[in-house]
Write a structure and sequence with these properties.
The complex is a heterodimer of chains A (about 110) and B (about 110).
Chain A (H helix, E strand, L loop, with lengths): L2 E3 L4 E5 L4 E3 L2 E3 L5 E7 L6 E5 L10 E2 L10 E3 L8 E8 L8 E2 L3 E6 L1
Parallel strand pairs in A: 2-11
Antiparallel strand pairs in A: 1-4, 3-8, 5-6, 5-9, 7-8, 9-10, 9-11
Chain B lengths: L3 E3 L3 E4 L5 E3 L1 E3 L5 E8 L3 E10 L2 E4 L6 E7 L2 E6 L8 E8 L8 E2 L3 E5 L1
Parallel strand pairs in B: 2-12
Antiparallel strand pairs in B: 1-4, 3-9, 5-6, 5-10, 6-7, 8-9, 10-11, 10-12
Classes of the chains: A mainly beta (about 110), B mainly beta (about 110).
Chain lengths: ~110, ~110
C-alpha cells in the first residue's frame, strides 16, 4: 500500500540546535517526494522537493531509496521555523493522487 | 503567482443543513482536490477531480459530494452536515502529470453545531 509515515507528532528543539523531521514512505516504484510547510495563519505551501536537490530556508532533504526515507534537516533551528511540516508523495503513474503524512509540529524554543 | 481561493473562511452551520464550500483557481490547472485537515490525522483526501465533470473518491468521501462544472471551480457539498464534519477544509490544485507542486487555498473552518 502507498503510505507516508511521519512518526513524530511534535518535535521541540532549542534555537540553534539541529533539526531532523523524519519521513518514511511505502511505494512500489520511484515516487516524487516533497515537504510542505504551514506557518501560523498561513496557507500550506511547498518547502522543497527532492528532485530539485535544493536548500530552502536552510532546510535540506535527501531521498534514501534503500531506507525509503526523506528526512528533513536543518543544522541550526530558528524560532521562525516553528510550523507544521508535512511530507508528501506524488505517484509517478495512475491518477496522481498525492499522499500526505500526518504532519509534525516543530516548535523552536528560545 | 498561482492563487487558490476559498470563498468562505469561517462557517457555522446546524446539524442537517446542506453546506457548500466553493473553491476557484486561476492557473488553468487540470487537477483539483478537497482535503480535510484534522490534528493528528494530517490531510485526508475527500475527493479529487482531474477534469471538468470528472471526479474520483478519495480516502474519506462518505457524507460528501463534489461538483466541477467549470475548470476553475471545484465545489464541496455536505448534503446533511453532522457534528463529526466539523473541521478545516483545504482546496488545492495542480497541473496534470506527476511531481507537480500542489497549491493550497487558505482553508475553510467549518463548525457544525
Amino acid at each position: 500500500a502507498q503510505r507516508v509515515t511521519q512518526p513524530e507528532k511534535l518535535l521541540s528543539v532549542f534555537k540553534g540546535a539541529p533539526v531532523e523531521l523524519k519521513c518514511n514512505y511505502s511505494y512500489s516504484g520511484s515516487p516524487e517526494l516533497f515537504w510542505y510547510v504551514q506557518y501560523s495563519r498561513q496557507r500550506l505551501q511547498l518547502l522543497l522537493r527532492h528532485i530539485s536537490r535544493e536548500s530552502i530556508k536552510g532546510f535540506t532533504a535527501d531521498l534514501n531509496k534503500g531506507e525509503t526515507s526523506f528526512h528533513l534537516k536543518k543544522p541550526f533551528a530558528q524560532e521562525e521555523d516553528s510550523a507544521m511540516y508535512y511530507c508528501a508523495l506524488s505517484p509517478t503513474s495512475g491518477t496522481y493522487k498525492y499522499i500526505f503524512g500526518t504532519g509534525t509540529r516543530l516548535k523552536v524554543l528560545a | 503567482d498561482v492563487k487558490v481561493t476559498q470563498s468562505s473562511r469561517y462557517l457555522v452551520k446546524r446539524t442537517g443543513e446542506k453546506v457548500f464550500l466553493e473553491c476557484v483557481q486561476d492557473m488553468d490547472h487540470e487537477n483539483m482536490f478537497w482535503y480535510r485537515q484534522d490534528p493528528g490525522l494530517g490531510l485526508r483526501l475527500i475527493y479529487f477531480s482531474y477534469d471538468v465533470k470528472m471526479k474520483e473518491k478519495g480516502d474519506i468521501p462518505e457524507g460528501y459530494s463534489v461538483s466541477r462544472e467549470k475548470k476553475e471551480r471545484f465545489s464541496l457539498i455536505l448534503e446533511s452536515a453532522s457534528t463529526n464534519q466539523t473541521s478545516m477544509y483545504l482546496c488545492a490544485s495542480t497541473e496534470q502529470g506527476s511531481g507537480n507542486t500542489i497549491y493550497f487555498g487558505e482553508g475553510s473552518w467549518l463548525t457544525v453545531v
